Amino acid sequence: MKKRGIGRPSTYAKIVEVLFRRGYVYEDKYKRVRPTRLGVMVYSYLKERYEKYVTEETTRRLEEIMDKVERGEEDYQATLRLLYEEIKSLMEEG
């Protein structure tokens, strides 16, 4: 994640912890994190149904929006309304 410029350093450990806990990844003998069969299946399902929302670009866009809200450049309520409408539209399609 760090190499790809997504996520926040404060969240990396928590994200990896959740992936291990849910059985989506495991550590190989070389100490690399690898996907499990379940992890591949879940990712494939999400990509098939919600491809627009599981991309690195979408993650970057959301992080930029959050940064703007944090700096006071965007109103958090207006931002939440837009994101809500986007998610609602997605759920109506699915």
Account of the protein in words:
- With 94 residues, the protein is mostly helical.
- Helix content is 65%, strand content 6%.
- It contains four helices and two strands, in the order αββααα.
- It is flat.
- The model has no long low-confidence stretch (mean pLDDT 90).
Key traits:
flat; mainly alpha; 6% strand; 94 residues
What is the mean predicted local confidence, pLDDT? 90
- Judged by helices, strands and strand pairing, the structural class is mainly alpha
The largest sheet is: 2 strands, antiparallel
The rough form would be described as flat
Q: How many whole angstroms does the radius of gyration measure?
A: 16 Å
Spans where pLDDT lies below 50 across 5 or more residues: none
DSSP strand content: 5-15%
The helix content is: 55-70%
By DSSP (H or I, 4+ residues per run), the number of helices equals 4
Total beta strands: 2
Set down the secondary structure blueprint.
Blueprint: H1 9-21, E1 25-27, E2 33-35, H2 37-50, H3 56-71, H4 76-93
Quick summary of this structure?
This protein is mainly alpha-helical and 94 residues long. The protein is 65% helix and 6% strand.
